[in-house]
Structure formats: structure tokens, C-alpha cells
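Final report, closing paragraph on structural work. Over the funding period we assembled a curated collection of sequence-structure pairs, and we close with a single example.
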Amino acid sequence: MAVLTVTNPLIQVYIIHSAVLALKLIAVSSMTGYTRLTRRVFANPEDVKNFRGVVKLDDPVVERTRRAHMNDLENIPAFWILGALYVTTGPGLGWTTLLFRIFTVCRIIHTVVYVLPVVPQPSRAIAYGIPYIINWYMGIQVVSYYINNF
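Its predicted structure, as stored:
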């Protein structure tokens, strides 16, 4: 089992990538709000009064941005959990850095190609699939490690 201190480079790599992903979540949330404001379409009547818009739950641009945010909420928390557990198995620093970096970059690319629909498929599917596989890989490695060391 790895020594888990903030001076451990594995923990530092995890912290950096987790923080970038958290900032990305905040940014996409803000993007959804900004899109609602600029298009003047809102989900709640009280917002319509304050910002002079209309209640509309199916604006395609807002919904696309919102779906990108929901997709992050379905995938990034799993990375936080599995990544934290994965570093406890004592993996190599280079390999772990590569996994975390690829995961983070792909999640950023996924949002860009999701929000900008001019980028054709399979770009979004690839940007989704690679981090998905990384999460599965880390989860399987954690389970395997602890079953074998139980």
C-alpha cells in the first residue's frame, strides 16, 4: 500500500487533476447559466421576472450545455473516487500521471465538442469513451489489488 501524504507525488498528481476537473465542473455550470441569460430562456418563473425572458425548458442550446454538465456530473465524481482509491494501490507515477492527464484532457475535449455541435462525431464518443475506460481500468485495478491482498 502506498504512503498517503501530500508529499507523495501520486497524491499531488491526483490533487492537481481533481482540482482541474472541479474547476471544469464549475465552469460548465456557469456556462449553462450564461447561456440561459444570453438566450433569455429560464426554467423558473421567478427568473423570468428578474431577467425579462421566458420560461422554456427545451431550448436546444441551453439543453446541449446542460447535458454536457450532466455528463460531467455522471463521470467526474467516479474519477475522484476511483482515482483516490487507485493511488492507494501504489501504482507507478508515470503511468498514473498519464492516466489522470488523459482522463482530464479528454473530459475537457468532451465538453468542447459537446457544446459546439459543429465538431462531428465520433469526436464526442471518443472523448467520452477514453475516460470511461480509464475509470473502469482503475476500478478493476483497485478491486483486484485489494482482493489479492485481503
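The helical segments are 9-39, 45-51, 60-87, 93-115, 123-148. The chain has a mean pLDDT of 93. We thank the funder for supporting this effort.
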